[in-house]
Every structure is written in structure tokens, then in C-alpha cells.
């Protein structure tokens, strides 16, 4: 008997455009509005509607809900709202009855911003869509967050280059053509930079050399970006995005969205009205007592995330992405904005965060916070409830500092490597709350991190004022990628391997930004938000040019997914898991003795991670042990995991972040007869001897002395006695 998906589907938001009884019910919310009109269009390029239907303030208003049924409307209908009301900024009202407004609950947009006419903004049209879609018994992925390797990418930039070789470059469908590459790398989830609707150019319709490439300027929270569709048919992006998700799921890959619920593309009081401002500004934006838009986002306006109206809009958007599009998780941009109350004060576990964490429909959805904002809030380790994971900015900074050779970094590095218990354990949270990363879209690429001491953002048109100044980078003696100095090139390659090895061997959840695995460069630009150019695009020739690094990374990812000791559900204790056995983690000095954690210049250390006894671990033993080793053809209905729930090896890592070669000595523990060490990783060695995919590298000297060149690490494995 055929099995059918039990996904909740066709989730219907309470407002917006709802297909009903042979027509469409159009509705929006406004308390202070005095009148409203529905504008209907034939084409996305129409400057004027072919029909205007007025809301009756008595018959078509129920409480604060304005609702109008149009019997001859249907799928593909294009529309705007116009809303009348008072213009009184001190009361939080910026109504403009002339403004054409995007429906806050729009499911799709079509067209672009047209040139302003008579001072009125002409935004893209909203599209009535149908959620019917054949998911073809698409599997449900039930992978534990601890077993994920996340890959952050930009939909357009990943395949836009002519080197990508895809048939639909820069689109959702083009992205699916690169699924084999993602599978070969071994990542388990893609985290897509914003794919909700955003304007590429100015809201007044004017062209500009500076485009909104990244997409952190939403104009419709629940609508996939029209620019990422192959078809130009209004609403086609809905179907194509679903097709993309379906193909990713059939390949066993999860899909996370980077969502921006901290501001919109609609600026403050002196700018165009085309979205939330036109419905009742104070219920969607944070305003000062004089009506000025508050700026905690760095973009001139800030969402009022704990207003009941905005809270409901966010909530219904998330439910729509999960139910209608089968999205597996969300990364919340500048999420600390959502921790601010209606007065802008930071509060503990505010309603919107609790609502997201406790919602039954979102219960299996990964929720990840960028736990800071542009106004000084920094909540890493303190964001929301236990359900929330966080981009661990402390991990990024401490790992960079350690490998750069900064003073007083050894203890911080070891803590980050072990899952950041100082941030999470005190509140009962787990290592999986830490999303570890060395680089992200925001900042230097990995290649640039080891090639530039300073940002080079002049192409952005802001005279290099934009972007982060404190990058914790090091160029090894030459500023920029254009050098033929073999020693510098060797050190840079070594440092990149150090970063990847540290990241993929750490406790917590690793995240890689696309292209780092093949040394993609932005030539020192650390804020390429407006660079829809080859500077930002993935250059696919690098997969051949730097195939050795790709091999290094994919081998490490494979090892991580095969070795449960690297994916622990609880923090290390420094004690044996079972009395009489090895401690779960041990740290030793260069000589094999105790570590002086307070030494300011300490930059060498040895770590031994003992093989986890999964059967004795309550967190592992309580999980389902179904394993799918290969996902092809007739996929299973449920994909629980491809990661092995076993620990095969004891792991010994020697870190030398100093600027000098060092000789390490095996600690007495490592000389025990139960161990038979073999080299797995040597970041100082030239490929292919930098990594041994079959775990069969050379054994160390019998005297236990190991010479490590400067800025390198070495990993030894010893198969545990069964």
C-alpha cells in the first residue's frame, strides 16, 4: 500500500488573499484606518489598475479586520491595497491614501518597483497563489541538530557564474543541479541567505549601480523571491521553490532559511510608504514618542517584534514556510531585535521567542539566532530558551585569535573547541546550541582571512567606511591574494587547513560558508552586500584548482559524521564516562604534562578525546538508531540520519599556533598499550599527505616525540578495543 506524506499542508494565514468559494477573500488589519481600496491589475508592468474595489467601512470591517470578497478573482490575480487614515506621527500613524501597499501576508510578488508617479511609489504587485503541489511522497528528514554540517550559500551567487555549467543559473532550480556537489562535500543542510522577497533597486524605481544582492531588506516575509525563478509567470517562484525543496529532501539534505524579522526595506518617516507603514506603523515598527523610527537594526527602522500584530505576522510566516514549503529550519538575522519589548528594552524570553520555541507545528524545526543586533545587544549564550541554537560569534573570534597567535587565547580556544560550556551549560543548554563558524557571508572569506590584514571595500561606493574593521585576520607578510611568495602561500594554505580541522573536530554544530572549501576570494571585500558580480559568485573552476582542499574538507566531514565522539549530546566532564575508563577529554602541555592555562603566550596544547561509549550515553541511546547510508532512487519515507551512531576511534590532536616549530611529547596516557596511533591529519604536510581518508597514515615515532612546524596541527587516531 502506498504511503502518503503526513505533512501539514496548505497552511492558510488568516489574512491576505484567500481562495474561497470561486473567488478570493482579500483582508488586512488596521485599527486606525478610515477607508480602503483593492487595486487589481492585468500585468506586473501596469502603472494603473484596471479595476478598483472599495471596502465598505461598515459592511467590510469586522473589528480591526478589513475583509472583501471578489467573486471573479482567482489564482494569478495581481493586486495592491490602498488604505486611508490619519497622518499623525506622534500617534504612530503614517497613513497615505495614495500609496500602493504590498499585502503583509502576500504569498508572491510579481514585477519590479516602477518609477514614482506624482510622488507615489509603485511597488511590485502581489499575486494570488494556490498551494496545490505534488510533493511525490517526499521524505521527512529527522536529523538531530548535533549531526548536522551546515553550508551557508547565496542562491543566485552559487550558480550565477558561467563556470557553474548549470542550465538555469542563479535560480532555485539551478541550485538543485549542484546537489551532487553538496553530497560529495558531505554537508547535511543548506542555509540559504534571504530568499523572501526583497527589492534589488531603490523603492522609487530608479536604477543604481549599487544593488541589494544579499537580500537583507524584506518586503514580503512569506513570499519566495521572484528573481530566483526561471519562469516569469506571476507566482512561478512558489512552484519552483517547492520543487527545489523536494529535490533537496530526496537527496537527504535539509533546507534552512535566513529570515529577516528585524527591519524591512521600507525606510523611516521621510521615505516611501509601500508596506507595513501604510497599514498602521506603530503596530509594526518601533517608534519614539515623536513618531521617529527607532534604529536597532542599522538600517534606519526596526520591527516591533513583540507587538501582537507583528508577532502574528512573524508567526504565520514561519508556519507558512514550514507547512507550505516544507522548510526544515530558520536562522534569524539580528535576532536580538526580537528580544526587545515595545519600548525597545531587552527582556528575557519575550513572547515572540517563546511562541516560536513552543509552537507545536514548529516543534521539529531548527531555530537558530544571530544573537546580537546593531545597537549593542550581544546575547550569545543567553538567547531565548533551550530550544534556541545560536551563531556562536565567540567561537569565531576566539578560534581566529588563537590561530593568529594572540596572547591569552589558549583557554578560550579550548573552551570553544569543547562546545562552549561557559556560555550554555549554566542554563541547562547543550553543545548543539552552539553553531560554530570561522567565517560567514558577513566578513572575509576563509581565503581572505589569511590574505588580508585590512578590509578593501572600495567597490561598494562608501569609500571603505562600511564593513567590520576588526577582522582578526593575518596576511602572513603580504596584503592580498596576488603574491608568488611560496612561503607565504604555504602558510596560508596551512592556516586554512587549521581552521577547517578545528571547526570540524569541535563539539557543537559546524557551519561552512560556500566556496571556502575551494578558497573562494572576494579580494578583501568583507561586506559584499551589493556585489552581484563575479566578486561574489562561486567560481566553479576553483573546484579543480583547489581540489586538494576540497578533498581535505570532505574527508573531515565524513569523519565527523562517522565518529559519534565529535557529535556529543552533552558537554565533556573531564571524567571517565564509565569508572575505570579514560576521561572523556584530557589536555596536556607541549611536554605531555599539565597545561598552564594562565600563561599569556601559551599557543601549544595536546588534546585527547576518548571514544564515546554510545550504549552508555543516555542522550544517544534514547535516539532512534535507524541509519540510511545511501539515498538514491526509491527513497525511504523517513530519513532519520546518515550519521553513524557509533564511536570507533580515540582522537589525539596536537595544536601548534605559535610562530615557531615545536616538538610535542606524548603524554603518559597516550603511551598506554591499548593505543595504536596512526596519523589522520597533518596540516603542515603537502597534499595528499595532509589527510588520510582511510585513516591509515604513518605511525608516530616510538619515543613519542612529534615535530610540528609553526602554525600547524596534527591528528592521530587509535581504534578503540572492542
Gist?
By secondary structure, this protein is of the alpha/beta class.
What does the model show?
This protein is of the alpha/beta class. About 20% of the residues lie in helices and about 20% in strands. The protein contains 15 helices and 32 strands. The strands form 9 sheets. Strands 15-16-19-20-21-22-23-24 form an 8-stranded parallel β-barrel. A hairpin with a 2-residue loop joins strand 5 and strand 6 (about 65-70). Helix 8 packs across helix 9 (about 410-415). It starts with 15 loop residues before the first strand and ends with a strand.
**Total beta-strand segments:** 32
Taken as a percent bin, the fraction of beta residues is: 15-25%
Shape category? elongated
In the sheet with the most strands, the strands line up as 15-16-19-20-21-22-23-24
Count of helical stretches: 15
**How is the biggest beta sheet arranged?**
8 strands, parallel, barrel
Structural class: alpha/beta
Radius of gyration: 27 Å
Quick check: average pLDDT? 93
Approximate helicity band: 10-25%
Would you identify the regions where 5 or more consecutive residues have pLDDT less than 50? 1-6, 624-633
In quaternary terms, these chains amount to single chain
Ends distance: 42 Å
What are its keywords?
722 residues, 8-stranded parallel barrel, 15 helices, 5-stranded antiparallel β-sheet, alpha/beta, single chain
Record the SSE blueprint:
Elements: E1 16-20, E2 23-29, E3 35-41, E4 51-54, E5 61-62, E6 65-70, E7 78-84, E8 87-88, E9 93-94, E10 109-110, E11 114-117, E12 120-122, E13 125-127, E14 140-141, E15 150-153, H1 155-159, H2 172-176, H3 179-185, E16 189-192, E17 196-197, E18 220-224, H4 236-250, E19 254-259, H5 277-280, H6 308-325, E20 329-332, H7 351-358, E21 366-369, E22 389-391, H8 393-404, H9 410-417, H10 421-424, E23 434-436, H11 446-449, H12 486-505, E24 509-513, H13 542-545, H14 547-562, E25 585-588, E26 604-609, H15 618-621, E27 638-639, E28 649-656, E29 662-665, E30 678-682, E31 705-708, E32 712-719
Parallel strand pairs: 14-27, 15-16, 15-24, 16-19, 19-20, 20-21, 21-22, 22-23, 23-24
Antiparallel strand pairs: 1-2, 2-6, 3-4, 3-7, 5-6, 7-13, 8-9, 10-13, 11-12, 17-18, 25-26, 26-28, 28-32, 29-31, 30-32
Helix pairs in contact: 6-7, 8-9, 12-14
Amino acid at each position: 500500500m502506498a504511503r502518503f506524506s503526513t505533512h501539514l499542508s496548505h497552511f492558510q494565514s488568516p489574512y491576505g488573499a484567500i481562495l474561497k468559494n470561486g473567488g478570493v477573500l482579500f483582508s488586512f488589519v488596521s485599527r486606525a484606518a478610515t477607508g480602503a481600496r483593492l487595486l487589481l491589475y492585468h500585468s506586473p508592468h501596469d502603472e494603473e489598475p484596471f479595476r478598483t474595489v472599495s471596502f465598505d467601512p461598515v459592511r467590510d470591517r469586522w473589528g480591526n479586520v478589513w475583509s472583501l470578497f471578489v467573486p471573479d478573482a482567482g489564482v494569478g490575480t495581481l493586486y495592491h491595497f490602498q488604505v486611508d487614515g490619519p497622518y499623525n506621527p506622534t500617534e504612530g500613524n503614517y497613513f497615505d491614501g495614495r500609496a500602493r501597499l504590498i499585502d503583509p501576508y502576500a504569498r508572491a510578488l510579481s514585477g519590479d518597483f516602477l518609477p514614482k508617479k506624482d510622488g507615489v511609489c509603485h511597488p511590485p504587485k502581489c499575486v494570488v497563489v494556490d498551494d496545490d503541489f505534488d510533493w511525490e511522497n517526499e521524505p521527512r528528514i529527522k536529523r538531530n541538530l548535533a549531526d548536522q554540517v551546515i553550508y551557508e550559500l547565496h542562491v543566485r551567487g552559487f550558480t550565477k557564474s558561467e563556470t557553474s555549467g548549470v542550465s538555469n543559473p542563479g535560480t532555485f532550480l539551478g541550485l538543485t543541479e549542484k546537489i551532487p556537489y553538496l553530497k560529495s562535500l558531505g554537508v547535511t543542510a543548506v542555509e540559504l541567505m534571504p530568499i523572501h522577497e526583497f527589492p534589488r533597486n531603490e523603492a522609487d524605481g530608479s536604477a543604481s549601480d549599487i544593488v541589494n544582492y544579499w537580500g537583507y531588506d524584506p518586503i514580503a516575509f512569506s513570499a519566495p523571491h521572484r528573481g530566483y525563478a526561471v519562469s516569469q509567470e506571476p507566482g512561478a517562484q512558489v512552484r519552483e521553490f517547492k520543487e527545489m525543496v523536494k529535490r533537496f529532501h530526496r537527496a537527504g539534505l535539509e533546507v534552512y532559511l535566513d529570515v529577516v524579522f528585524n527591519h524591512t526595506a521600507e525606510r523611516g518617516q521621510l521615505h516611501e510608504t509601500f508596506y507595513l507603514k501604510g497599514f498602521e506603523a506603530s503596530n509594526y515598527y518601533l517608534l519614539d514618542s515623536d513618531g521617529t523610527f527607532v534604529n536597532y537594526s542599522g538600517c534606519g527602522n526596526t520591527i516591533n517584534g513583540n507587538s501582537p500584530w507583528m508577532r502574528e505576522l512573524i508567526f504565520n510566516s514561519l508556519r507558512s514556510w514550514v507547512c507550505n514549503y516544507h522548510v526544515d529550519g530558520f536562522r534569524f538575522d539580528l535576532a536580538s531585535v526580537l528580544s526587545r519589548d515595545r519600548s525597545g528594552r531587552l527582556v528575557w524570553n519575550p513572547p515572540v521567542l517563546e511562541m516560536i520555541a513552543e509552537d507545536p507545528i514548529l516543534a521539529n524545526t531548527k531555530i537558530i539566532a544571530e544573537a546580537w543586533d546593531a545597537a549593542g545587544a550581544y546575547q550569545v549564550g543567553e538567547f531565548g530558551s533551550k530550544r534556541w541554537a545560536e551563531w556562536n560569534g565567540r567561537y569565531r573570534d576566539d578560534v581566529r585569535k588563537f590561530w593568529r597567535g594572540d596572547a591569552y587565547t589558549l583557554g578560550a580556544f579550548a573552551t570553544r573547541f569543547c562546545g562552549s560550556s561557559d556560555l550554555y551549560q549554566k542554563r541547562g543548554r547543550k553543545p548543539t546550541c552552539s553553531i560554530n563558524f570561522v567565517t560567514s557571508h558577513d566578513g572575509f572569506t576563509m581565503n581572505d582571512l589569511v590574505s588580508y590584514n585590512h578590509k578593501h571595500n572600495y567597490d561598494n561606493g562608501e569609500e571603505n567606511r562600511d564593513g567590520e574593521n576588526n577582522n582578526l585576520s593575518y596576511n602572513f607578510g603580504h596584503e592580498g591574494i596576488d603574491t608568488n611568495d611560496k612561503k607565504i602561500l604555504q602558510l596560508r594554505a596551512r592556516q586554512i587547513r587549521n581552521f577547517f580541522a578545528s571547526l570540524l573536530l569541535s563539539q557543537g554544530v559546524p557551519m561552512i560558508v560556500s566556496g571556502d572549501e575551494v578558497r573562494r576570494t572576494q579580494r578583501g571585500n568583507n561586506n559584499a552586500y551589493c556585489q552581484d558580480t563575479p566578486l561574489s559568485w562561486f567560481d566553479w573552476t576553483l573546484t579543480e584548482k583547489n581540489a586538494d582542499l576540497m578533498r581535505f574538507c570532505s574527508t573531515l566531514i565524513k569523519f565527523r559524521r562517522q565518529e559519534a565522539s565529535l557529535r556529543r549530546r552533552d558537554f565533556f566532564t573531564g571524567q571517565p564516562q564509565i569508572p575505570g575508563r579514560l576521561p572523556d577529554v584530557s589536555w596536556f602541555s607541549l611536554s605531555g604534562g599539565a597545561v598552564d592555562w594562565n600563561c599569556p603566550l601559551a599557543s601549544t596544547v595536546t588534546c585527547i578525546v576518548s571514544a564515546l561509549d554510545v550504549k552508555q550515553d543516555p542522550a544517544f541511546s534514547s535516539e532512534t538508531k535507524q541509519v540510511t547510508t545511501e539515498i538514491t532512487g526509491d527513497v525511504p519515507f523517513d530519513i532519520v540520519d546518515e550519521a553513524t551512531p557509533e564511536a570507533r576511534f580515540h582522537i589525539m590532536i596536537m595544536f601548534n599556533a605559535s610562530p615557531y616549530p615545536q616538538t610535542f611529547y606524548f603524554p603518559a596516557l597516550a603511551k598506554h598499550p591499548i593505543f595504536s596511533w596512526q596519523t589522520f591529519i597533518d596540516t603542515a604536510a603537502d597534499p595528499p599527505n595532509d589527510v588520510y581518508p582511510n585513516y591509515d597514515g604513518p605511525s608516530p615515532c616510538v619515543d613519542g616525540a612529534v615535530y610540528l612546524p609553526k602554525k600547524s596541527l596534527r591528528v592521530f587516531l587509535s581504534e578503540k578495543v572492542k
